[in-house]
Write a structure and sequence with these properties.
This protein has about 300 residues and is of the alpha/beta class. It has helices at about 40-50, 60-75, 110-120, 145-150, 165-170, 185-190, 195-210, 250-265, 265-280, 290-300; strands at about 1-5, 10-15, 30-35, 55-60, 75-80, 80-85, 90-95, 100-105, 130-135, 160, 180, 215-220, 225, 235. It binds adenosine-5'-triphosphate and magnesium ion (MG). Adenosine-5'-triphosphate binds near residues 221, 238, 246, 278 and 279.
Amino acid sequence: MIYTVTFNPSLDYIVSVKDFKLWNTNRTDTELMLPGGKGLNVSTVLKNLGMDSTALGFTAGFVGDEILRRIENIGFKSDFIKLENGCSRINLKLKNYDGTEINGQGPVIEHAHLEALMKKLDQLKAGDILVLAGSIPSSMPTSTYEDVLARLQDRKILTVVDATKNLLTNVLKYHPFLIKPNNHELGELFCLEFNTHEEVIPYAKELQKQGARNVLVSMGGKGAALVAENGEVYTSDAVKGRLVNAVGAGDSMVAGFLTGWLEQHDYAHAFRMALAAGSASAFSELLATKDEIMEIYDQLQV
Ligand SMILES: Nc1ncnc2c1ncn2[C@@H]1O[C@H](COP(=O)(O)OP(=O)(O)OP(=O)(O)O)[C@@H](O)[C@H]1O
Ligand SMILES: [Mg+2]
């Protein structure tokens, strides 16, 4: 089973407002509500690709209940810990003012809640996959990812970590199966800026030397590079298309990679599925469907 973790899931309220004005009452032209959070995005695209997963994390209050209801509608399993206090967050996103958003805080996660999650992780079995994606809420220790991986050590569980800065470098010693920095996040680790496949490869190899098994560097419209555990390096440009909404392209890529890997245990196929899923989500308003992904898969040569 694949497990994804979303510590602080949200209900995203995505609206467009014509001529948005500060200090005024503005009215929406279009409205959309979706469950949000990187782990939930990964679970959604896995579901679209026909793969089962269980989403873990914390929910609270009526927003938490609505998130769970929507997850059920999408059709993947979840086993969230419901907190007694507080409320899961609503994130307001202004669609036609790219990147303008007001994100809520979410509930306070206490030590006992985290311990309850750790107990659930104790049930994972050899061969299971755990995806940890995104930032850690401020009420939780910054060592949470490391603590989780330390607890999973020596249990033959494959881990995927999509995180930035120390959150990422601190887990390398636990040999995550996959890490997926984008080129900017990779650059940040080395105080450099990367724009080409050739530039990222030596640094992806360095992260592999530090412990990561597979390093997938996404590069937005420039495609991606994979330094794989088998010693092979794969690079590809992205297919050309109209960018509609890049939010969740990275999460889709993780879902595509896992699906491809589980299907064939072949890195070229996993890389191609990853690229296809990332681009298909970038070219679509919502997260990509299987048809959208496979259409792009057929156009790629890896
Ligand atoms: N404009 C684009 N055109 C074609 N493909 C794209 C585009 N943007 C993203 N992709 C595809 O999606 C993959 C992941 O995108 P990106 O590098 O932006 O991830 P990210 O920054 O981690 O995103 P996020 O964290 O918001 O999910 C890219 O490697 C590429 O395959
Ligand atoms: Mg990302």
